[in-house]
Amino acid sequence: MKVVDLRRDTITLPDERMREEAFCAVLGDSVYGEDPLQQELEQYAAQVLGKDAAIFLPSGTMGNLVALLTHARRGEEVILEESAHIRSSETGGAAAVAGLMLRGVRNLSGIPTADEVASAVRPEDIHYPRSSLICLETTHYRYGGIIPPLENMKEIWELAGRLHLAVHLDGARLWNAAVALGVEPSVIAGCADSVMASLSKGLGAPVGSVLAGSEPFIREACRYRKMLGGGMRQTGWLCACGLVALQPENIARLQVDHRNARMLAEGLSRIPGVRVETDRVQTNFVLADISESPYTAEDLVNKLAGLNVLATAAARSTIRFVTSREVDAEGIAAAVEGVRSI
Ligand SMILES: *Cc1c(COP(=O)(O)O)cnc(C)c1O
């Protein structure tokens, strides 16, 4: 029986076209600016994100860390939502490598208001760390792929301008947000000085992320990428895949994942003991609360695995399902049926 893998959207595999483009890639030493496809990808990513320049990096984690190193100095403070990926899921790199303080702002919806962000900014005082950067995240990973409204992002961007703070956007799934909002990726990226976006989540590229920003920002970011070991020589293999990943039709296909997530959410919410806040299913994630069932999330995930349906226990009573192009509508129906049968 076919396995329905709803654990992550990082499982997406390169399609035929990507494999062909990678196979035929003309290669060079990218550390010396001699890999034509890395240069093409970097220029194209900058254009799609509406920034002056961009760089290709091996991962989103490195992209975010490079952005932090470029924007802020040791001992300074970065303001971000309390459970932001940079704070919760990047191994403490901001502290360990960049020497930064991370000030989490708590908001039960996962999307702090501009006022809440403003109150976390430190006044000028010899006792306080200096606030230097605000980080935003779209879509929000811990909160089930929700999308901060553009209005909220613009207010924070304006606040940052008034206070002379920089804004970095962790846009690992910015593509999903753009498709769901029906706007160009550059509109969302326009609310930040720099933006990281993944090529390997949902879009099928095997490896890589891009970081975009102003010309001087990216020149400096290039040095940190090299420092962290992100200078990768013949990257054309990977960048060929990245270029296919960023084709408009490939990004637009994410709609299918969103539709499948909604179908899954609706199916699950009709099962007694399962609760889904369907209005918070905005992209390709579904968080199902099973606190009114006899099971813990771990129990249910284990039982589901026995039925060849894979999901993640995100908390004691919360199961996370992530749709991707590796799961079709039939798989979604099988997942709903699996939960119902248990
Ligand atoms: C996955 C992810 C990252 C990190 O990307 P990697 O390529 O896995 O290092 C950063 N931010 C968010 C929101 C993510 O989901």
Molecular structure report:
With 342 residues, the chain is α/β, with parallel strands linked by helices. The chain is built from 15 helices and twelve strands. 42% of the residues lie in helices and 16% in strands. The mean pLDDT is 97.
Oligomer: single chain
What sort of overall outline do the alpha carbons produce when their principal axes are compared?
globular
Bound molecules: pyridoxal-5'-phosphate
Mean pLDDT: 97
Q: Indicate the proportion of strand residues.
A: 15-25%
Q: What spatial order of strands do you see in the largest sheet?
A: 2-8-7-6-5-3-4
| Rg over alpha carbons | 20 Å
Gap between N and C termini: 18 Å
Structural class: alpha/beta
Number of strands: 12
* Low-confidence spans: none
| Helix percentage | 40-55%
- Helix count? 15
Order of helices and strands: EHHEHEHHEHEHEHHEEHHHHEHEEEH
Described by strand count, sense and barrel closure, the largest sheet is: 7 strands, mixed
Keywords:
16% strand; binds pyridoxal-5'-phosphate; 12 strands; alpha/beta; 342 residues
Chain-wise SSE layout:
Elements: E1 4-5, H1 16-23, H2 36-49, E2 53-57, H3 60-71, E3 77-81, H4 85-88, H5 93-96, E4 101-105, H6 114-120, E5 131-137, H7 150-163, E6 166-170, H8 174-181, H9 185-189, E7 194-198, E8 209-213, H10 215-227, H11 236-245, H12 248-252, H13 254-269, E9 285-289, H14 297-306, E10 309-310, E11 312-315, E12 318-322, H15 329-341
Parallel strand pairs: 1-10, 3-4, 3-5, 5-6, 6-7
Antiparallel strand pairs: 2-8, 7-8, 9-12, 11-12
Helix pairs in contact: 1-11, 2-11, 3-10, 6-7, 13-15
Pyridoxal-5'-phosphate is lined by residues 59-61, 64, 85, 137, 141, 170, 172, 198, 209.
